[in-house]
Design goal:
This protein is α/β, with parallel strands linked by helices and 377 residues long. The protein has three domains: 4-117, Response regulator (Rossmann fold, 3-Layer(aba) Sandwich); 141-211; 220-374, Heat Shock Protein 90 (2-Layer Sandwich), CATH 3.30.565. Helices cover 46% and strands 19% of the residues. The chain contains ten helices and twelve strands. It has helices at residues 23-35, 46-55, 72-81, 101-106, 119-172, 181-211, 224-241, 263-280, 319-322, 342-352; strands at residues 15-19, 39-43, 60-64, 90-94, 111-114, 220-223, 245-248, 258-261, 285-296, 302-312, 356-361, 367-374. A five-stranded parallel β-sheet has the order 2-1-3-4-5. A five-stranded mixed β-sheet has the order 7-9-10-12-11. Helix 7 (224-241) packs parallel to helix 8. The longest helix has 54 residues, at 119-172.
Length: 377
């Protein structure tokens, strides 16, 4: 069936699709809603309704439960399973002798109204569901604008930061002549500050990619022990400068502990966790432990997991910060807290690997971050 004549309408008017095999009922509903200024289209079966909705989703669907062929429950299920469709409120129309209203609500309908339809009740429910629709659409639009803003901002910021970094590197190498010790020191400070800002922009860009669902993991077999050794070796000089003991159990066992994941992304996670532990710990130690565990799945089968613990003797984290620690731009209670993006990004990476990340901490008693990852995605 060709629905093109139905779609040439102004976006300012709410479009309502009524699907009912009873002409008397659809005539009454259409008359009531058109009187209120809504644009009404009418169909008499579920198959045509799905074709219409896929071609041009309405703002609201009034759907009869009992129809020949495909009933309202099946139409509702198919709509809710179609991830490509925007949110469409569904108002089920039921007869007084139909006791299965809860079934429709359970599979995704938003409200129901019984026949014979009453004028005031119909308008009230339609207005309520359209308010819900407008609220969801506005929220989604804000989210899209935010994603677009973050994407453009990070790309636009990154270009001049990279250029500045390269220019300062050339200056330090004497490209424009010999520099005095004071200028060299000033350039080193500028380079560190620029690099910190570039790192934050890159992290923000990575966060955006994960939140927008645009990040694709590059999955390969990973030797977790070797990965952690690289992270620890890279951070060892910083720990030694602070007089900290950076301890591991990585040399205790030569058994290969392997998982399938994105090596670069997991390296980012463990560098962040161990780096934070070193950064926020002034005395004592930072310990990295690697082990394996098993999880029993719902079907009673056993799945092998890798467990990495990062424990420090730092100042600890107040309990009120625990629940929001992995949210973006949330800082802990430490005076040296950074951008608030590192732990959020780490959490996004771990979730993308179907893993978990948790924290245990008390003020004055240090912190323990635990990451668990399945060996196979």
């Amino acid at each position: 069936m060709d629905y093109s004549p139905l779609f040439g309408r102004s976006s300012k008017v709410d479009r309502v699709l009524v699907v009912d095999d009873s002409p008397d009922n659809t005539f009454l509903i259409q008359a009531i809603l058109e009187e209120e200024g809504y644009k009404i289209d009418v169909l008499n079966n579920g198959s045509d309704a799905l074709a219409y909705i896929n071609a041009s989703p309405p703002d609201l669907l009034l759907l009869d439960v009992m129809m020949p062929g495909m009933d309202g429950f099946e139409v509702t299920q198919r709509i809710r399973k179609n991830a490509k469709l925007p949110f469409i409120p569904i108002l089920l129309i039921t007869a007084h002798d139909q006791p299965r209203v809860s079934q429709g609500l359970d599979i995704g309908a938003d409200d129901f109204i019984r026949k014979p339809v009453e004028f005031d009740e119909l308008l009230a429910r339609v207005r309520s569901l359209l308010r819900l629709k407008h609220s969801v659409d506005e929220r989604d639009q804000i989210a899209r604008q935010r994603e677009d803003f973050v994407s453009r901002l990070t790309h636009d910021l990154r270009t001049p930061l990279v250029a500045a970094d390269r220019m300062m590197s050339l200056l330090q190498q004497g490209a424009l002549g010999e520099l005095s010790p004071e200028v060299i020191e000033a350039l080193a400070t500028m380079e560190r500050s620029n690099q910190n800002l570039l790192d934050m922009v890159n992290t923000l860009l990575q966060v955006y990619c994960y939140e927008a669902g645009r990040k694709t993991l590059s999955l390969t077999p990973i030797d977790v022990r070797q990965l952690l050794k690289e992270v620890v070796q890279g951070l060892m000089p910083i720990a030694l400068d602070k007089g900290l003991a950076l301890q591991t159990n990585l040399a205790n066992d030569d058994k290969l502990i392997e998982l399938r994941g994105d090596r670069l992304e997991l390296h980012r996670v463990f560098t962040n966790l161990v780096g934070n532990a070193v950064k926020f710990t002034d005395t004592g130690s930072v310990t990295v432990r690697l082990s394996t565990t098993v999880h029993v799945k719902a079907d009673q089968s056993v799945e092998s997991w890798v467990k990495v613990e990062v424990e420090d003797t730092g100042p600890g984290i107040s309990p009120e910060y625990h629940s929001s620690l992995f949210e973006p731009f949330r800082h802990g209670n430490h005076k040296r807290s950074g951008s608030g993006l590192g732990l959020h990004l780490s959490c996004q990476i771990i979730k993308a690997h179907r893993g978990t990340i948790e924290v245990e901490s008390q003020l004055g008693k240090g912190s323990l971050f635990t990451v668990e990852l399945p060996t196979h995605l």
